[in-house]
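Duplicate of #3305? Posting structure anyway:
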């Protein structure tokens, strides 16, 4: 059984600057106790001979190979732009004069 007490929950809430009602303290005492108990159960079986895993099923990358393809030139990209300066798109300021 865990050692999570209402006093410990109140202390942790105080450290985190979280205001809790008495009902919340009681609820969190049980919830945190269950979490601590679950971690303790896992710790019992997580011996050095059991390899650590981040996922129970081995994962592989499902993406295609990154092969460079055909790209557009700057001129082609700017060809249909409403405004440009020859090398960049020109857009209206959205933040005002403070830029």
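Output from current build:
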């Amino acid at each position: 059984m865990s050692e999570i007490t209402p006093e410990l929950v109140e202390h942790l809430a105080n450290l985190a600057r979280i205001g809790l009602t008495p009902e919340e303290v009681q609820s969190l005492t049980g919830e945190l106790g269950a979490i601590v108990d679950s971690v303790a159960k896992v710790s019992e079986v997580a011996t050095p001979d059991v390899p650590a895993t981040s996922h129970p099923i081995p994962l592989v990358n499902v993406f295609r190979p990154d092969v460079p393809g055909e790209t557009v030139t700057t001129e082609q990209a700017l060809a249909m732009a409403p405004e440009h300066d020859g090398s960049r798109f020109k857009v209206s300021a959205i933040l005002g004069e403070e830029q």
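Confirmed duplicate; merging threads. The chain has a mean pLDDT of 88. Residues 14 and 31 are 18 Å apart (CA to CA).
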